[in-house]
Every structure is written in C-alpha cells, then in structure tokens.
From TrEMBL:
UniProt name for this protein: RNA polymerase sigma-70 factor
Species this chain originates from: Virgibacillus salarius
Domain RNA polymerase sigma-70 region: 8-72
Assembly, per entry: Interacts transiently with the RNA polymerase catalytic core formed by RpoA, RpoB, RpoC and RpoZ (2 alpha, 1 beta, 1 beta' and 1 omega subunit) to form the RNA polymerase holoenzyme that can initiate transcription.
PANTHER family recorded: ECF RNA POLYMERASE SIGMA FACTOR SIGJ, SIGMA 19 FACTOR
Occurrences of domain RNA polymerase sigma factor 70 region 4 type (ranges): 109-160
Length: 295
C-alpha cells in the first residue's frame, strides 16, 4: 500500500477515533494505530483502491483481537472500570481529529455503555453510526454478511439505552455542574435534590492502584455521603478545574501538584444520572506528564 506522511495525517485521526471508542483507552489505541500504519507501510505489492476502508479494516481487526484478550483482564479488574479520560483543550481547535472526536459516542457514559456490547456489535455500531460506513463497507471490514451486520447493529442499538443527543449540550451541562458544585459546597439540600437523581449511580475507578469504592454506589443519599467523605479527606493543596473531558464538562482534581482524579457526569434533562470518578494513575499519567491530547 502506497502511504506517505500526508496519508498518515489524513487517516490517523480516523483510526484513533475508531480505536478509542472501541477500547476506551488512549494508550492502547495509540499503540494499535502505530501498529496498523507500520503494517500498512509493509504492504508493497497489493493494490488498495479504498485506503480508508482498508485501514479501518486493519484497525478494527486489531481492536477486536485486543478486546478478546482484554476480556479476562476486565473480569479481574478491581472495582468499576471507567474509560481512560480524553482531555480537550481550546488551543487545538484546528486539530484534524476534532470533527471526528466531537461526534456522538465519545462521552464517558456512552463508552461505559459500550461495555455491554460484544466486540463485533461494538464495531458495527461505531462504523455505521459514528463513521457513516455503508453496510456493504462494514461487511467487508468485519468480514460478515450485510444481513448479519444489520442484525448486529439493531441488537447493539437495543442494548444502548443512553439518549446521547439529549445529553451532549456542553454549556447546559456545564451550568448543571456549576450549580451542583455550589450547592454541594454550601450544602443546599433543596438544590441538590433538584440536580441529582434519586437513583444516581457513582462509579469510582481506582483499578486497585489507589483507594476507591470497589462497587458502584447507588441512590442520592449514599452518593452524596460518599462525596462528603472524600471532601473531608482532601489535602490542603487540593484544587480543581472544570475542563472539557470526553467532550463534556468535568472536574480535574489536583493534589500535590499533579492530577489526582477526574469526575465526569451523565446529565439528562438537567439532572445528574451517573457520576464517574477516575483515580487509577495508569489512566491519568499521560495528562499528569503534560502529554495532553486533542482539543
């Protein structure tokens, strides 16, 4: 396959966006993207007419293999598993990956929901819904019939219950987060009752590396009590910022001069339905080291 630097610049954002949505890991996705291009550069005699579809096929197959091997690791993962947060910064608004990364299917809530799908369901859903491939193209990429791909897509849509379009309004959600933080700080009970669902669930991901809740915490009373307990134990130099994480307003918490955790939310109809706290240092080390990807 004839590839040059221009082809890499053109297709790398697409492959990263596809891989990250399938795996929920920045580090693993970047590794697989590099492997895919390395393999593509080595294909010299084969004439490829549709480079985009062929590269997506290579990337998808590697992601499927990775998910199969990762299944056992996920089963023994200590506590809830949250996707690795993806940080966005406004000084990269012209980055070629922005359009792909800002499309649906990027939020922590959506990526967590993807865990309910089989690897092939996940691939077909993304290729069809996020990347607009036809069923004919998808059948070639995942090596299944078009009819089978349609069934996989229908099945995956039934499992994904998040109303994504209703939960992605950044500024509206940022207002909810700000109101929640203010109400939590001054213990405004009536405001908290309005902003937080009675059936809210909190997922705390420490990965066995740091202290975290090993089971999801459910109901408003228990979640707020848990958060109050965390606040009482914060270091004196603790501070936070509200930044764009996975396309949504989230808290980035700092302690000892480095990133301690991120807190993301699933907000629907101006109500917090789920909270995701990621503390596993392996999922924060790129950001803590200043290697901040995307926008």
């Amino acid at each position: 396959m004839q590839l040059n630097n221009e082809a890499y610049r053109l297709y790398q954002p697409l492959l990263f966006s596809l891989g990250y949505r399938m795996l929920g890991s920045v580090v693993d996705t970047e590794d697989i993207v590099q492997e895919t291009f390395l393999r593509a550069y080595q294909i010299k005699d084969q004439k490829i007419e549709n480079k985009k579809a062929y590269l997506c096929k290579m990337m998808t197959n590697r992601c499927l293999d990775f998910l199969k091997s990762a299944k056992k690791r996920r089963e023994v993962y200590i506590g809830p598993w949250n996707p690795e947060p993806l940080f966005f910064f406004s000084d990269m608004h012209d980055h070629p990956s922005e359009a792909l990364l800002q499309k649906e299917g990027l939020s922590i809530a959506y990526l967590r929901m993807m865990e309910q799908l089989s690897p092939h369901e996940r691939a077909v859903l993304l290729l069809r819904e996020v990347f607009d491939f036809s069923y004919r193209e998808i059948s070639t990429i995942v090596e299944k019939t078009e009819d089978n791909c349609r069934k996989l897509y229908s099945r995956s849509k039934q499992k994904i219950s998040i109303v994504e379009n209703e939960s992605l309004h950044y500024e509206r959600n940022k207002d909810v987060v700000n109101r929640f933080l203010k109400a939590f700080h001054i213990q405004n009970t009536s405001e908290l009752l309005e902003l937080v669902s009675d059936k809210v669930t909190l997922y705390s991901d420490g990965g066995g590396k740091v202290k975290a809740a090993v089971r999801p915490i459910r109901t408003r009373t228990k979640v707020l009590a848990f958060l109050i307990g965390i606040r009482k134990k914060t270091a004196e130099d603790y501070y936070y910022e509200i930044r764009n994480v996975n396309g949504q307003p989230s808290l980035i918490n700092y302690m000892n001069g480095t990133i301690h955790s991120t807190v993301s939310f699933y907000i629907l109809h101006r109500t917090i339905k789920e909270i995701y706290i990621t503390m596993n240092p392996d999922k924060l080390k790129l950001q803590s080291a200043g290697v901040l990807f995307t926008r």
